[in-house]
Design brief:
Elements: H1 2-26, E1 53-55, E2 61-63, E3 74-79, H2 84-104, E4 107-112, H3 119-129, E5 135-137, H4 142-146, E6 154-158, E7 164-169, H5 175-187
Parallel strand pairs: 3-4, 4-5
Antiparallel strand pairs: 1-2, 3-6, 6-7
Helix pairs in contact: 2-5
Length: about 190
């Protein structure tokens, strides 16, 4: 009897932890956009970016560096369609993309790391959500290996010269505030 009560207690604890995690993601503010001072300790590191080949929806090869180095910062979000936190981040980014462009002159792109057989699901997600930024594909995971992406969602910010200045894995309530802070710091 004691063992079954312990198992039930462990299950309840795990369910509570999962529920709290989901609530944390659902309370992330997608719209934000105000100019409040966000005090997030962030240190920018300027690193060379190794270029990788990605594909657009028409299966044309593009280079990651072709989206950066134009004098404007570029936000790159790596995701998978099965990843719920990734979808929250993409939704938040979609709500912010016009603001980020107007305020920081930032470009936003998303790169799906889904395998080739799941590409149609990604296309459906793009259509359903009507993202206002380019969504590209890396079905073979080249960027994941070259850029050392260990978990999803993963965000990388490139400065106006194409250098990698910020990385973040995961997504939570403060993620968009951190991004705005990074973009503000990149302008200086």
């Amino acid at each position: 009897m004691k063992i079954s009560q312990q198992i039930i207690s462990i299950k309840n604890t795990l369910l509570l932890a999962i529920l709290l995690t989901c609530i944390g993601y659902n309370t992330a503010q997608a719209a934000g956009g105000d100019d409040e001072d966000v005090s997030v300790p962030i240190r920018l590191k300027r690193q060379e970016v190794r270029d990788v080949t990605i594909k657009n929806k028409d299966h044309q090869d593009l280079m990651l560096k072709s989206f950066s180095g134009n004098g404007n910062p570029t936000v790159v979000v790596f995701f998978a369609q099965w990843c719920l936190p990734c979808q929250h981040e993409l939704d938040s980014m979609n709500a912010q993309v016009a603001y980020l462009k107007a305020k920081y002159n930032a470009n936003v792109i998303a790169i799906s790391l889904d395998e080739k057989q799941n590409e149609q699901r990604v296309v459906q997600l793009i259509q359903d959500k009507a993202y206002q930024f380019p969504v590209l594909f890396d079905s073979y995971g080249d960027s994941k290996a070259v850029l050392r992406i260990q978990s999803l969602p993963y965000m990388m910010v490139l400065d106006g010269e194409g250098y990698r200045i910020y990385d973040r894995k995961g997504f939570g309530p403060a993620s968009m505030d951190q991004l705005r802070t990074v973009l503000q710091m990149a302008q200086k």
